[in-house]
Design brief:
mainly beta; two-stranded antiparallel ribbon; 10% helix
Length: 221
């Protein structure tokens, strides 16, 4: 029997909002992300993919085909503050405690953050999405310092981020993975979060960013 279409049914008015649970993973020399640290004060993470532009090809006096350019994942991070470990990712060296030297080499990093999924019955507690970003490189940020006045505002820092895709078995390389808590098995999701955020035990397990292949295997299991 053919199912009739319906719109705006109860429980199906979904939306996304917010950003929290930011984690920074400085990249090690072997390309892994072995130690994550909490990123407090995230204001916005704006995903800005580019590329995938059509390049038409002509033959026989007609448009013969379209070739698409490579797709590139970029982002803008805005925050009130950042972890101390982000200094090397932002081109800052610290030869002595309390002394910071800018315009140094920038270290690649990985990033994890969470956005909330809401609907008309559960509100923003309906679920969430985990966003994993690989091969990030931050460009210099603009810092605008202004006098304190009758309407003071905290300074926000902003970085433009470019990425280098990570390999994925059986698929094209990618810089971004998204995990939807409303669709993924809860046990697999909990196991993934124990890796992303670290786990308390004997001994404690530090937070780390698994490779795309490891995430796929974990979710598939």
């Amino acid at each position: 029997m053919t199912q009739l279409l319906s719109w705006d049914s109860v429980g199906e008015k979904t939306y996304e909002t917010g950003v929290d649970h930011g984690v920074l993973y400085p990249q090690a020399s072997d390309g892994t992300y072995p130690l994550g640290v909490a990123w407090n004060g995230l204001v916005t993470v704006t995903e800005s993919p580019s590329g995938a532009e059509a390049n038409p090809q002509y033959a026989d006096n007609i448009k013969y085909l379209n070739l698409l350019s490579a797709e590139i994942f970029g982002a803008t991070i805005e925050a009130f503050t950042y972890p101390d470990e982000f200094g090397v990712c932002d081109g800052t060296a610290s030869p002595e405690v309390g002394l910071f030297v800018g315009q140094q080499s920038r270290k690649p990093f990985g990033l994890c953050y969470r956005t909330k999924i809401g609907n008309d019955t559960d509100g923003v507690d309906h679920g969430y999405k985990l966003h994993l970003v690989y091969g990030c490189l931050a460009s210099p940020s603009e810092k605008a310092y202004q006098t304190v006045n009758e309407s003071p505002e905290a300074i926000t820092f902003s970085w433009e981020v470019t990425t280098t895709p990570a390999s994925v078995t059986g698929l094209k390389p990618t810089s971004a993975l998204t995990i939807d808590s409303t669709l993924v098995d809860p046990t697999a999701l909990a196991a993934l979060e124990a890796i992303l955020y670290g786990a308390t035990g004997t001994p404690d397990v530090p937070a780390e960013l698994p490779t795309p292949d490891e995430v796929i295997a974990l979710i598939g299991a």
